[in-house]
Amino acid sequence: MENIPLITNDAIVFGLLMLTLGFVFYTESIKTGFWSKFYKIVPGLFMAYMLPAVLTTTGLIAPEWESTSESGEIVKGSSNLYYMSSRYLLPAALVLMTLSIDLKGVFNLGWKALVMFFAGTIGIVIGGPIALLLIAQLNPDLIGVTGPDAVWRGLSTLAGSWIGGGANQTAMLEIYGYNQKLYGAMVFVDIVVANIWMALILIGIGKRNIFNKWLKADTSAIEDLKQKVSTFSESVKRNPSLTDIMIIAALAFGAVSFAHLSSDYLAPFFGDFIGGIENQMTRNVFTFLGSKFFWMISIATLIAIGLSFTKARNYEGAGASKFGSVFIYILVATIGMKMDLTLIFDNFWLVAIGIIWMSIHALILIGVAKLIKAPYFFLAVGSQANVGGAASAPIVASAFHPSLATVGVLLAVFGYAVGTIAAIGCTILMQIVAGG
């Protein structure tokens, strides 16, 4: 099978992604005519996500590919841009966006953030078995398979991913012993459905005032936090010198360096410790502590919170959060690059389960938000803290305001902690539905 994209050189692909981001920002800055009307409907962040997806769909670029050599051997290739963005730029962005954080203001956002997070979790837990039950009425063969190939075992990995993250997903794969030869289809459904949902959330951000009015939401705490950060930013605002920019870069990537160094020691340490626990259930619940990504994000965020209590926070006046936003947009573009729109029609029944599953998650979030009058911000971030994890939740949160990125991180880290337990509950229900 040949599916090699036209461009495989990451240097060229990165340039194309930057050109798409430049196009988005330039057209969004036009305040008259077609583009002005267009961006009143479609948020720029959504375009930054979707244009790279179009490039992938047309075969110009691709996140990964494979070909057959003359000897018949399958040769695989991939882009490292998402890895670079998520491991280097994301933690740097979190540091720069958190420098000026008002931690007290974050806590003042109150209980609704946690309620919406758990509403999202419950939506995933009950959404899986309901989706499987509905689709099984149309295609009974889905639940007719037993053993390692059973669909419910594969769907358990989606539950782990959509409540926690990659570590939780891997834990579920090990717990339920799904056939790893079939695992690629589940990863595909994960990417397709989660990315479609993220796209809808990004569109919703542009309509958040309409949503908040319908939800009768009290956004005062969010607005107060944004106002405090904006006021502080204005009070220290200055034309950045080269020294300012270099120190900002040093703070960001110095913290990233320390976060990576620490995670290189902490992840194996906890991995070995957890591996020695005799009880398999306990062992798998805490698998996320063996994830380098978990420790890297957590430590980078803790460093940034610590710096916010020092004079380093004054570098917000030199544009620290703006540099962080640049990194976030690059990450968004690399995430969009992972989406091939034509593949939605492959694995139709699995994708259908995923879409119904995510729809139930969305309906529960909307219902709870309406009930407690929670702002759209809590709905969007509560959902992405579950479904997208630490890579996506800060993106969605920062789209409301850079100072809110930390809220997304804190909830996403919480998702790692509850991910495996909740995913096991979801899988038990799917197993009952499948009669397995």
Can you characterise this structure?
The chain is mainly α. It folds into 2 domains: 1-71, no CATH class; 90-434, no CATH class. It is 72% helix and 2% strand. The chain is built from 19 helices and 2 strands. Strands 1-2 form a two-stranded antiparallel sheet. Strand 1 and strand 2 form a beta hairpin. The radius of gyration is 22 Å and the shape is globular. 47% of the residues are buried. The model has no long low-confidence stretch (mean pLDDT 84).
Biggest sheet details: 2 strands, antiparallel
Helix content: over 70%
Structural class: mainly alpha
Q: Whole-number radius of gyration? A: 22 Å
- As laid out across the biggest beta sheet, the strand order is 1-2
Q: What is the tally of helical segments?
A: 19
* Strand proportion: under 5%
Identify low-pLDDT runs.
none
Q: How are helices and strands ordered from N to C?
A: HHHEEHHHHHHHHHHHHHHHH
The mean pLDDT is 84
How far apart lie the N and C ends? 35 Å
Using DSSP, what is the number of strands?
2
Shape descriptor reads globular
What attributes does this structure have?
436 residues; mainly alpha; 2 domains; 2 strands
Helices and strands, with pairings:
Elements: H1 10-29, H2 33-41, H3 44-57, E1 64-68, E2 74-78, H4 81-98, H5 103-107, H6 112-138, H7 151-163, H8 166-176, H9 183-206, H10 208-215, H11 220-235, H12 242-275, H13 280-285, H14 292-307, H15 320-336, H16 348-372, H17 376-387, H18 393-400, H19 405-434
